[in-house]
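Fold it.
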Amino acid sequence: MARDLLSKRLLIVSGKGGVGKTVISSAIGMIAASRGQKVLLIKMDDQGRTAELFESNPVSDQISPLRDGISALNLDPITVVSDYFTKQLKIKRLVKHIIASRLFQNWFRVSPAIKEMICLGKVWDLVDEKTWWRSAPKWDLILFDAPATGHGLGLLRLPEQASKLLIGPLRTNALGVQAVLEDAERTGLLLVTLPEEMPVNETVHFHTEARAKVPRVAQEAVILNSAAPDRFGETTPDPATCETDAAKAAMAALIGSEIAPEIVAEAFRHATEVGQARAALTKRYREELKQRIRLPLVEVPYVFSAAFGFAQLERISTILERKLIEAELIPEREGS
């Protein structure tokens, strides 16, 4: 029987900066929403990329809808801390005075672990949040677009470390977060990388360190983003052999009309060589990931497009859904 990532309550998507975590987490959110789930995307320090992908309003520190079935939240530490203190002290005006004080601002600036711990606590609250009318989970799936792997491992270790140092509500908060992260029924970790040396090395290092230092956090799969297919094998095709009208038209369309044949041929050769080089890198790092990480490997192809918006995100989500089904990470759609 296929595993079902979409039955998790929380999926943490981690990877080196620039590998496409936001695209992958958004695409998984679209897959879940298309299957009738209510999805929340959680970002930290969102720079507007999510709004670009969904062609929506910017993601703010308040939960807002992106598309049918998908909402998003940008975790702003000040807002989260303010909400946390309001829950504890019950007096909103007092909280405003505390937040505005110089003492608080200085403490907040030099205490990043506290900020991150409270932000994780917010994720925990949202995972456990229930609808008031039937006490069911408000969100079927929460996708946490985690900080880059350089900080991601520290974030995963933080609840356990904080629980040994904190007291009172903050310690209770840390223990609650730790319980969610270590619950394999509810939480899974996805690693995203590119077919390039540095992202792959960092992914392998993160995987190894996470297994040693947070062994109870369930690593589910590695997603190799922007993979290039091997279209031609070892041989570069000669444009001169492309004798059909359709082939000639396709080559000309790559660089425009009324272009000299020798320029078309040179552009064709160059494009082919670049494609072959990318395919060779993909093959090399695919094998390296298979050898060094014993997790399912899911490939998402590079999408050639002048712009990357909602249409391209839909394309990625369709491809990714098929790949996840093939890897037995999610089941077939009912009735398919």
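The chain has one domain: 5-230+295-326.
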